[in-house]
Amino acid sequence: MLTSLFLFLLSSSPALAELSSPETRNELTEVSKALEFQYEQKLEKLKVENQQLKSELDSLKKKPSLSCKPASKDLILDTQDLQKSKDNSEAKEIYLQGIRAFQAEKWDEALLRLEHFVRYFHESKLADNAVFWMAKIYIEKSQPALAQEELQRLLRDYPKSERASLAKTLLNKIESGGHP
Question: What are the structural domain ranges in the chain?
Answer without folding.
Answer: 2-62, 72-175
